[in-house]
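USER: Write out one fold?

ASSISTANT:
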Amino acid sequence: PAGADRPGSRRRGGAVTAPIADPVSAATAPPASSSRRPAGRPSPGRGDEGSAMVEFLALAVLLLVPLLYLVITLGRVQAATMAVDGSARTAARVYVLGRDEERARRQAEATVALALRDHGFRPAPAALTVDCSTRPCPAPGAVVRVSVELDVLLPGVPAALDRVVPLHVTVRARQVAVVDDLRGVPDRGGS
């Protein structure tokens, strides 16, 4: 029968024969699928591949770096607050227990320096201020006001720049203590 030998035609048994591929025309023919693009050109839906990740990372860095700096700065200021508060309280106690004004002052300064160093701060010479309600101080019934002040330099800021443009936070603590009224009374022997 006519056309029985053509590829893809039906034979009497109902079987379909597959077309025979020509090796020369198969190598030079364009691909059957039109989804291939020339090299270097992105396909329509795949050009943004990876862009979302880069944008996310850039945004994360832009937000996390200042947030991390803020956390470090607030932690440093909080540590200074704790150091100054504790040193003022202890200095006031030490001062009211001192025997004379000179010794009480030296012991209070040493206490402040130790407390500030324990918290990682370098004590300034004028960090401690003591005001007493009577002279000589400490005297029985005298009110002693102790003030401790500390300048906290922001992290990462050079000290030279802080001298030109103040980039520090000043932390202060005040403590009031009263010298015991019975301090001057000599001990009368056991009771």
